[in-house]
Amino acid sequence: MLSDPPELRQDALLLRLGNGVELTVHYASPTAYSLRWKTADGQQLGIDTAPGHRSIETGPHHLHQPDGRVTDDPLTRPGQPPWDNLQAVIGALLDDPLLTALT
Fold first, then answer.
1. pTM above 0.85, yes or no
2. Tell me: the pLDDT tens digits for 17-60?
3. How far apart are CA 16 and CA 9, in angstroms?
4. Is the peptide bond before 81 cis (omega within 30 degrees of 0)?
5. In the chain, what's the furthest Cα-to-Cα distance?
6. Domain coordinates of the chain in residue numbers?
7. Which DSSP letter does residue 63 get?
8. What order do you get walking across the sheet with 44-48 strand by strand?
9. pLDDT tens digits for 72-90?
């Protein structure tokens, strides 16, 4: 699953997955988090709970697409245990780093 051991940063955890995805995890609480990843070919996506995108169905949690669009978050649920959300994201990224099947 991981290509290297996790790296603990000052305010984040960096995970390198076996398929070349680099996932940066910021978790302040079960309702405040940011999960950002870069694919092996350099595309960047992310899921977070930052306010400001309440017009989408899953707001405030949302997905930032590589083309700049903000769409519904298909993977996480604020208030769930962080490990549950992180497991859902890692599993999905291992299968499809761009989440094309879910969006």
1. yes
2. 999 999 999 999 999 999 999 999 999 999 999 887 667 888 78
3. 13
4. no
5. 38
6. 7-92
7. E
8. 7-8, 13-16, 22-29, 32-38, 44-48, 62-64, 70-72
9. 999 999 999 999 999 999 9
